[in-house]
Specification:
The complex is a heterodimer of chains A (112) and B (113).
Chain A (H helix, E strand, L loop, with lengths): L4 E3 L2 E4 L5 E6 L6 E7 L6 E7 L2 E5 L6 E5 L5 E5 L8 E8 L7 E2 L3 E5 L1
Parallel strand pairs in A: 2-11
Antiparallel strand pairs in A: 1-3, 3-8, 4-5, 4-9, 5-6, 7-8, 9-10, 9-11
Chain B lengths: L2 E5 L2 E5 L4 E8 L5 E7 L5 E7 L5 E3 L5 E5 L4 E6 L8 E8 L7 E2 L3 E6 L1
Parallel strand pairs in B: 2-11
Antiparallel strand pairs in B: 1-3, 3-8, 4-5, 4-9, 6-7, 7-8, 9-10, 9-11
């Protein structure tokens, strides 16, 4: 079992650009959540996808959007990048409403 | 509303000493509580979870935590620290049917030889 896999592992973008991050959930999991972890802080919830729809959303602007595919994999898109978007982006997968989530290794995004 | 407070952003212990990392939560409904560990440049690994069963929860690598409703606490302990325990630890709370986590700001554990 490969667990939760994220790609790419590292990414450098310029202010104003757009970025897409990808996540494959743990085998058998159908729910994907995305978190932003700024340096020195705990992860903050961005949004959650279930059955290809956004089910919950945290306090993030509309520049952050996502998608879930029929195979349960997911993408996180960020438009008009700001320096403050530099962070570790974590994907977590779970099964339905199970309280247990498994996290990927994250994608380190640096905006310059 | 839910939130988590971790007291002490940095904790330093000697190898073999007791580890105590503090977590207090606020939740309007009975919570689920978790401790995760994060090694440098890695994701989060689940150490243990409380989901309304036994209040004393045992996790991996001899870590355990006790849910104390009266104190709204879920402190993490380990009887004897090992060098490999040096990492950052996050306490998190969620609610049933919402599996959305609220994380504390983390505690970095340093283990001295």
């Amino acid at each position: 079992d490969a667990g939760v896999t994220q790609s790419p592992t590292h990414l450098i973008k310029t202010r104003g650009q757009q970025v897409t991050l990808r996540c494959s959930p743990k085998s058998g999991h159908d729910t994907v959540s995305w978190y932003q972890q700024a340096l020195g802080q705990g992860p903050q919830f961005i949004f959650q996808y279930y059955e290809e729809e956004e089910r919950q959303r945290g306090n993030f602007p509309d520049r952050f959007s996502g998608h879930q595919f029929p195979n349960y994999s997911s993408e996180l898109n960020v438009n008009a990048l700001l320096l403050g978007d530099s962070a570790l982006y974590l994907c977590a997968s779970s099964l339905g409403d199970s309280p247990e989530a498994f996290f990927g290794q994250g994608t380190r995004l640096t905006v310059v | 509303a839910q939130s988590v407070t971790q007291l002490g952003s940095h904790v330093s212990v000697s190898e073999g000493a007791l580890v105590l990392l503090r977590c207090n939560y606020s939740s309007s409904v009975p919570p689920y509580l978790f401790w995760y560990v994060q090694y440098p440049n890695q994701g989060l690994q689940l150490l243990l979870k409380y989901t309304s069963a036994a209040t004393l929860v045992k996790g991996i690598n001899d870590f355990e935590a006790e849910f104390k409703k009266s104190e709204t606490s879920f402190h993490l302990t380990k009887p004897s620290a090992h060098m490999s325990d040096a990492a950052e630890y996050f306490c998190a709370v969620s609610r049933y049917n919402f599996n959305k986590f609220y994380f504390g700001s983390g505690t970095k554990l340093n283990v001295k030889p």
